[in-house]
Amino acid sequence: MRILVCISSVPDTTSKINFTADQSAFDNSGIQWIINPHDEFVLTKAIQLQASKGASVTVVSVGEANCEPVLRKALAIGANDAIRVNLEPKDSYTTAKELAFIIKNGSYDIVFCGKESLDYNGGAVPAMIAQLLGYSFVNGTVELEFKENKALVTREVEGGKEKMEVEVPIVIAGQKGLVREKDLIIPNMRGIMNARTKPLTIVEPISEEINTEAIKFEGIMPRGAVKMIASDNLDELIKLLHEEAKVI
Amino acid sequence: MSVFVYAEQINKEYKKTTFEAISYAKQIADKLETEVVAIAINSTNVEKLYQYGVSKIIKIIDEGLRSFNVNAYVKIITQVSTGNVIVFPHTANTSAIAPMVAVAKGYSFISGVLESPQSFKPFEVKKKVFSGKGFMVARANSDGVVLTISPNVFGIKENFVQGEEEVLEFSTNSENYNIVAHEPSEGKMDLKEAEIVVAAGRGIREIEDWKLIENLAEVLGGAVACSKPVADNAIRPHSEHVGQTGKVISPNLYIAVGISGAIQHLAGVNGSKTIVVINNDEDAPFFKVADYGVVGDATKIIPMLIEKIKDFKE
Questions:
Q1: Do B239 and A156 touch (CB under 8 A)?
Q2: From the CA of B191, how many Å to the nearest CA of chain A?
Q3: Is there a contact between A247 and B273 if contact means CB atoms under 8 Å apart?
Q4: Are B134 and A218 within 8 A, CB to CB?
Q5: Is A208 left (phi over 0), alpha (psi -120 to 50) or beta?
Q6: What are the tens digits of pLDDT across the range B48-71?
Q7: Å between A199 CA and nearest CA of chain B
Q8: What is the C-alpha separation between B95 and B246, in angstroms, rounded?
């Protein structure tokens, strides 16, 4: 079983997000990079399969050198090796194409991705990889097991969950719930030491053509001052919600 | 070329998200002086779609697609959507189908759009980024564009058109996916579509007090949500977690009870039209981004609020 886990580096969730003065790009000065939270769940799942089924786990990121610390952390968590595609990921399609090439070249038949990355929220890369390779695809994955050559997957849908048996090769887009928050693997001293000698290979991209461009960014407009209402005057709140805000 | 829209039906019903997607497609079609063609798969009551401006419905009947099989859905939708703007609502299934259709057609893909395009040639449109902490205008640099529409932002606009149906029958082999079970959640409203959401956080200390939150949501006809620690501690299910790493929502009314207002939580709810914060701590950061605030003990305030809302509704 060879699993490829696609991970991305995103700004730490406590970060205040700023854009450059001309609003053309994200201002990443001073940003701490972390592994995309949804990816943490699929990575831990892959390491659990490494333990239970002897799977080999490779992690890959499309990014510049600033994403290597996150790849090293994934190695410390237990991945066997890492690959960095040396390209700033400018849109979902370009990223998916690079990853599809790595998958085909490396003959990975099980691909794990997080549901979406917290930076651009495209949520498209896993699906695009599946389409490019003709793999099965399941998104919203909250439970996963492998039996013989099939994946037994539970996905979250509107109004509940759906459980299905799907053929491999497969791309799984996973999210919180796939493993319990308390079971997420935190690198220990031994993991961190081993990570230093595990292979991290840098490869050049196959193409740089993008088909969707980010042309302008804006921050969130602040709201006006809050209207405080005394706790013994809730009639006033209801009146404001009805007459002023018009939401009830 | 017509503007195509995938008129998804979930459990044999049209949801608000589908009507919003059609309203969006109709607005684009009007600007481009063309028509809206809806794609319906194994759907019932398709005539409802004419109300929102659909001129033609491609009604696909295929036993092999009774259950969701993404590769098969992508193949059929790609085949019948012969236009260069294809609109989808944003749901669990369409967030899988739409990017795959974009790849199949060599079109750009833009998810979670918030408003009409700012320009058509080239196609430019606004979406949220950084999980609610900012906005981005995306430009399509290819022959066409596939969009998903963020729920509860654009709105439903009625625009009746006398349209017609074209029925197409296929018989897809769907063996690579085999649905084994459906687990419905207990009749809860979908958080992303809810117009009113009542959320609570660590300020609700006793499990029984969550009943107050549920009752408030019920009397308002809204959905229940929670902050991250509440979901992580399994007090509420993950599906109710709103925030940067949970759901990003934009209801008309968001009532936050006992939530301090950490930046990650705010990212998930700053798209709400009106925010009401109820918290015992007058220094809670959430008050700085609220429209209305009440300082006090939620366990006393909520029951009073429920009674007053019941009176108001009579």
A1: yes
A2: 9
A3: yes
A4: yes
A5: alpha
A6: 999 999 999 999 999 989 888 999
A7: 30
A8: 16
- Cα B33 → chain centroid: 27
pTM of the model: 0.93
Q: Tell which phi-psi region holds residue A160, choosing left (phi > 0), alpha (psi between -120 and 50) or beta.
A: left
Q: Please report residues of A whose CB lies closer than 8 A to that of B283.
A: none
- The reply to whether A137 touches chain B by the CB within 8 Å rule is yes
Q: Are strands A33-35 and A9-11 parallel, antiparallel or unpaired?
A: antiparallel
Chain B residue whose CA is closest to A142: B238
d(CA B33, nearest CA chain A) in Å:
25
Cα–Cα nearest to A81, from A204, A206, A197: A197
Q: Report pLDDT digits (tens) over B225-277.
A: 999 999 999 999 988 999 999 999 999 999 999 999 999 999 999 999 999 99
Determine contact: B100 vs chain A, CB below 8 A.
Answer: yes
How many CB atoms neighbour CB B174 within 10 A? 19
**Taking CB atoms and an 8 Å limit, are A158 and B91 in contact across chains?**
yes
Cβ contact A175:A115 at 8 Å: yes
| Chain B, window 130-169: residues with a beta carbon less than 8 angstroms from a chain A beta carbon | 130-142
- For B307, residues 6+ apart whose C-beta sits below 8 A from its C-beta are none
DSSP per residue, chain B: -PEEEE---BTTB--HHHHHHHHHHHHHHHHTT--EEEEEES-S-GGGGGGGTEEEEEEEE-GGGSS--HHHHHHHHHHH--SSEEEEE-STTHHHHHHHHHHHHT-EEEEEE-SS-SBTTTTEEEEEEGGGTEEEEEEE-SS-EEEEEPTTTS---------EEEEEE-----TTEEEEEEEE-SSPPPTTT-SEEEEE-TT--SGGGHHHHHHHHHHHT-EEEE-HHHHHTTSS-GGGBBSTTSB----SEEEEES----HHHHHHHTT-SEEEEEES-TT-GGGGG-SEEEES-HHHHHHHHHHHHHHHH-
Q: Which of residues 55-84 of A touch B (CB under 8 A)?
A: none
Please indicate whether, in this complex, the C-beta atoms of B102 and A93 are within 8 angstroms of each other: yes
CA atoms B285, B291, B294, B297: torsion sign: negative
Cβ atoms within 10 Å, residue B179: 15
Cβ–Cβ under 8 Å, residues A122 and B111: yes
**Angstrom distances, CA of residue A241 to CA of A230, B252, B271, B287, B295:** 15, 11, 17, 16, 17
For residue A140, list chain B residues with Cβ-Cβ distance below 8 A.
Answer: 92
The answer to whether the CB atoms of A231 and B294 lie below 8 A apart is: yes
Question: What interface predicted TM-score (ipTM) does this complex get?
Answer: 0.95
Q: Does the pLDDT value for residue B192 go beyond 90?
A: no
